[in-house]
Amino acid sequence: MKRETPKYSPIARQDVFRISDGDGNPIAEAITDVRHGVRWVSNVWVKDGHRGNGLGRQVLTAVTAAYPHETLYLLVRAYDGGIVPDEDLIVFYESAGFTRAAVPGILHRIAIVCHV
Fold it and tell me: Which Gene3D superfamilies does the entry mention (predicted)?
């Protein structure tokens, strides 16, 4: 897993979580950025031919581990570009710790906060 911050990102505080194959080609990725004080997870994908091997879960695990004290938001969109997200995709994100928010299609993960 490689985490990098783009040098010329148009969005402040953007991080890329990427898994590459042996040749350095990206095969799974997620991007986080902060908009209006809220951290969003976006562009979560796994390349065709590599799905079903746990790479999506690895990327999401890295993202949630990187921000244990922040609430993360994720907008789930339909695979086909429609307006109704795929229920299997929502179930996948829920299994990674995200919960459904009041706005249809938006999921969030409540941060775990430790007070010493």
Answer: 3.40.630.30
